């Protein structure tokens, strides 16, 4: 299997061009190639396919083999892949995902895509659609108990579910203890991506993420979008802010004009290769 390893802020995936040949069992393949000791090493597997409703279609599998609806860092890399490999000559492209069709605007330098601005669509705030097991109209700063401690959680979906809570020091926060318990909390029937956020100022937020099916990753694009939305709802951030992740920065805007969330960040190729799976 030929592949390209790419990363967006350290959130690394293995990308495979499936416009000509389909992978039979992508879930098991994701487990094999993601292993950082016996495989290639990644946060998961991304398949690039043809689409009958967009320029391309993206399927994304976590390192545990589960399929996710969407990944903000991965979709930027998909945009770079299809442009750099001349599958398209357009700088504005549409990509079909399980979370809907997304529009990417690529920044081109020396005939290569180096940056992508992604229209991530409108945030979903209704609990049953996120989903959250709640009869309320929204889930903003609601108490969630984990091992005797109460976290004030705001739930947002960006096509996949997120639970955002605020901490004093995100680096010192015990993510590996709390993250898995938040991910599998009974409130979240499809599990949840858990973001823990430190407010620096109204235009700067620091974030760590425990991703559903992958554990801690260096960055999460949909999580950064959900964090900005949650922070606006909680009155601690402006509608445009820099989200500082372990792997780097993302610029996120929640537009008042169309209610869409826009994410701008880098996409980087690491290497090409072949693996016998």
Automatic annotation (TrEMBL):
Which residues span the membrane?
Answer: none
Catalytic activity, as annotated? (2S,6S)-2,6-diaminopimelate = meso-2,6-diaminopimelate
Residues annotated as binding substrate are 11, 62, 72-73, 160, 193, 211-212, 221-222
Q: Which UniProt key words apply to this protein?
A: Amino-acid biosynthesis, Cytoplasm, Isomerase, Lysine biosynthesis
| Pfam families (UniProt xref) | DAP_epimerase
* Gene3D superfamilies listed in its UniProt record: Diaminopimelate Epimerase, Chain A, domain 1
- Provide the GO biological process annotations: lysine biosynthetic process via diaminopimelate
Primary residence: cytoplasm
The pathway noted for it is:
Amino-acid biosynthesis; L-lysine biosynthesis via DAP pathway; DL-2,6-diaminopimelate from LL-2,6-diaminopimelate: step 1/1
User: What EC number(s) are associated with this protein in UniProt?
Assistant: 5.1.1.7
Q: Does the keyword Cytoplasm apply?
A: yes
Location in or out of the cell: Cytoplasm
> A Gene Ontology molecular-function term?
diaminopimelate epimerase activity
Q: Name one GO cellular component term.
A: cytosol
Q: Where is this site: Could be important to modulate the pK values of the two catalytic cysteine residues?
A: 162, 211
Q: Which domain of life is it from?
A: Bacteria
> Mind telling me which InterPro entries this protein's record contains?
DAP_epimerase_AS, DAP_epimerase_DapF
Q: Active site located where? A: 71, 71 (proton donor), 220 (proton acceptor)
Q: Which family does it belong to?
A: Belongs to the diaminopimelate epimerase family.
The record describes its quaternary structure and partners as: Homodimer.
Its job: Catalyzes the stereoinversion of LL-2,6-diaminopimelate (L,L-DAP) to meso-diaminopimelate (meso-DAP), a precursor of L-lysine and an essential component of the bacterial peptidoglycan.
**Record protein name field:** Diaminopimelate epimerase
Provenance organism: Ruminiclostridium sufflavum DSM 19573
Gene, per the UniProt record? dapF
